[in-house]
């Protein structure tokens, strides 16, 4: 069976295509993470307040959350390479135009254009599953996961250096050539997907999804500022909930639904989507705490610069770079379920230790803190690699774009809720601090160690619950065999 299966794939092409999909996270993380240290400079140049400048991040996420579902469906209908290039074209255009924005309003427009390109990831995951031999898929997914961490660690200190010496616009000018090169490589190397599922675009479903997603994300983003019980927040949440219910009802009866409820609600896809959402939520809360702990002055943190903070996260990236490909190689032998369970428990234990000893970390236990967040990052990476493989081997290729698009949608929800909840917790447990050299009447809020205990402790509980959820997964690979779901049925493939 192995020989027969390999004849269906061009291994030389698979290796060339692997280069494209593995470099993709480096481009996106380089572009997005470099923006973070540039936000204060953007705020100063356009004379906007901190709440306004946060929309540079929010508008990208709002547009991207809808686009991942829409482009995933279009990829199944018209070809995943075609839609991948269109999405990457949006992303590249946005990156180029961002650096030339003449006003803050134009910057928001060009960031929205870039947001359409967020769909490149679910489409790339779909192409990996569809065009790569099953035995290669876990390894490629592992390498993709590793590149996310590496891209983040490279981009944060580099972005701070570029912004400081050349200005925030050069964070985009420096990324634009790489985006153009990536588009050219994808156009030349990738082949069109072999599975196409023609049909009509579900525009009503798309509109209902937008009304469910956008008000929810706007409400979550603004809630820490205006209040969770404010009228604005409650109205936005109400619109989102009603629209979500109407969306589900419409999709159940639609002839060609944007997101087939029957596919994403089956056991494995449903568990993976919930798992990825809460994992993203826990990661976002942890990262929020890490940022403050690294950069706040003792005794409230380690007092490091942005550049130093990025360098201190290098061990986590290096470990991920080593662990992720090894995990991808072990998955078919050991099974996705045991590795996912190991990852969730590892992350939970590491976060639990951080929650217990958070008051004792600054300023004398810097390397203990670095070691613990590296342990947590390793666990999260193991879990994510396993879950994405469970998803792609539980859904037939004809619906892969829809499945991975829906998964990205759930991930974005978790990533948005995490910082909002973290911000609320840090605003609840704080002390007033007078910065050295500031006017006598100037005081800023500094999160207390209790805030870190709550943040890390909550994240630890989340990953413990995810470990229990993982137990309900139906195994898709073990003992050197992969349970392959094809359009025409299911079969086991030697790996």
Automatic annotation (TrEMBL):
UniProt cross-references to Pfam families, sorted A to Z: MFS_1
MF annotations from Gene Ontology: transmembrane transporter activity
Domain Major facilitator superfamily (MFS) profile: 17-478
PROSITE patterns the record matches: MFS (PS50850)
An annotated GO cellular component: membrane
Principal location class: membrane
Coiled coil: none
Keywords linked to the UniProt accession: Membrane, Transmembrane, Transmembrane helix
Compartment annotation: Membrane
Membrane topology: Multi-pass membrane protein
Stated name of the protein: MFS transporter
Species whose genome carries this gene: Thermococcus waiotapuensis
């Amino acid at each position: 069976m192995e020989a027969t299966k390999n004849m269906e794939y061009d291994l030389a092409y698979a290796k060339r295509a692997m280069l494209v999909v593995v470099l993709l996270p480096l481009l996106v993380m380089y572009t997005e993470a470099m923006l973070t240290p540039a936000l204060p400079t953007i705020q100063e140049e356009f004379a906007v307040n901190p709440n306004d400048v946060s929309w540079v991040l929010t508008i990208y996420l709002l547009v991207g959350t809808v686009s991942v579902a829409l482009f995933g469906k279009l990829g199944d209908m018209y070809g995943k390479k075609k839609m991948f290039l269109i999405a990457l074209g949006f992303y590249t255009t946005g990156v180029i135009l961002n650096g030339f924005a003449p006003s803050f309003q134009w910057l928001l427009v060009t960031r929205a254009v870039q947001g359409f390109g967020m769909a490149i990831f679910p489409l790339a995951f779909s192409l990996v599953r569809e065009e790569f031999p099953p035995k290669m898929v876990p390894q490629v997914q592992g390498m993709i996961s590793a590149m996310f961490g590496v891209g983040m660690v490279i981009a944060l200190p580099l972005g701070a250096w570029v912004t400081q010496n050349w200005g925030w616009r050069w964070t985009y000018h420096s990324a634009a050539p790489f985006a153009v090169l990536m588009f050219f490589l994808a156009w030349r190397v990738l082949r069109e997907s072999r599975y196409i599922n023609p049909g009509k675009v579900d525009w009503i479903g798309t509109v209902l999804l937008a009304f469910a997603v956008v008000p929810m994300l706007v409400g979550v983003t603004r809630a820490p500022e205006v209040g969770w019980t404010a009228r604005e927040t409650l109205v936005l949440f109400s619109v989102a909930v009603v629209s979500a219910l109407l969306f589900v009802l419409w999709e159940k009866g639609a002839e060609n639904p944007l997101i087939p409820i029957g596919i994403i609600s089956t056991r494995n896809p449903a568990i993976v989507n919930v798992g990825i959402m809460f994992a993203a939520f826990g990661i976002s809360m942890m990262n929020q705490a890490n940022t403050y702990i690294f950069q706040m002055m003792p005794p409230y943190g380690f007092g490091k610069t942005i550049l130093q903070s990025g360098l201190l996260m290098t061990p986590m990236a290096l470990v991920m770079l080593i662990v992720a490909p090894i995990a991808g190689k072990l998955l078919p032998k050991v099974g996705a379920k045991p590795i996912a369970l190991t990852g969730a428990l590892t992350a939970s234990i590491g976060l639990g230790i951080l929650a217990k000893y958070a008051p004792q970390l600054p300023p004398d236990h810097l390397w203990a803190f670095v070691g613990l967040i590296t342990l947590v990052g390793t666990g999260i990476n193991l879990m994510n690699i396993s879950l994405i493989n469970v998803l792609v081997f539980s859904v037939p290729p004809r619906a892969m774009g829809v499945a991975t698009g829906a998964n990205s949608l759930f991930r974005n929800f978790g990533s948005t809720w995490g910082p909002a909840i973290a911000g609320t917790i840090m605003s609840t447990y704080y002390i007033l601090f007078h910065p050295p050299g500031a006017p006598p009447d100037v005081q800023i809020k500094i999160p207390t160690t209790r805030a870190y205990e709550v943040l890390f402790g909550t994240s630890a509980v989340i990953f413990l619950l995810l470990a229990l959820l993982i137990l309900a997964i139906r195994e898709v690979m073990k003992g050197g065999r992969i349970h392959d779901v094809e359009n025409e049925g299911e079969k086991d493939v030697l790996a």
